[in-house]
Structure to design on (149 residues):
């Protein structure tokens, strides 16, 4: 797994799981997964809950065990960590903090990274990433590009 869950978080997840394991059988009904996630501070949509149920209860038995729940939470932490890294990378390129990366900012960062790109290549990069055609890269476009690599 990409991220180890800190010990204090494991305890929080374990306590929450036990809170919803009302029969003390080591299992929680899949139908209350959304409530359990909200109890530990997550805010999933109904569609996300359905996807997560399929992950923690792959055999559709109607309940899941703590190790399945913990593995899913580790995956979520890993995803959140990756998104934070992408957000920080975007900030490096967005020198003026206006939420967009323009040609000058891209050229400047690439030059500082030792990549002295001709203006044509910078134009090519911008055009390839620029989904909405405004001549700049916004965070969503940057995220899409970084996530597809």
């Amino acid at each position: 797994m990409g991220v180890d869950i800190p010990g204090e978080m494991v305890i929080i997840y374990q306590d929450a799981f036990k809170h919803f394991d009302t029969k003390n059988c080591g299992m929680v009904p899949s139908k209350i997964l959304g409530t359990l996630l909200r109890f530990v501070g997550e805010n999933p949509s109904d569609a996300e809950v359905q996807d997560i149920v399929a992950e923690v209860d792959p055999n559709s038995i109607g309940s899941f065990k703590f190790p399945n729940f913990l593995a899913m939470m580790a995956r979520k932490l890993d995803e959140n960590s990756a998104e934070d890294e992408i957000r920080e990378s975007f900030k490096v390129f967005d020198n003026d903090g206006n939420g967009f990366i323009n040609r000058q900012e891209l050229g400047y960062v690439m030059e500082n990274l030792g990549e002295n790109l001709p203006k044509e290549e910078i134009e090519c990069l911008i055009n390839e990433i620029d989904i909405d055609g405004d001549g700049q890269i916004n965070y969503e476009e940057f995220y899409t590009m970084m996530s597809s690599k």
Q: What stands out?
A: The chain has a mean pLDDT of 87. Helices lie at 7-20, 33-39, 46-56, 66-93, 103-112, 119-129, 139-147.
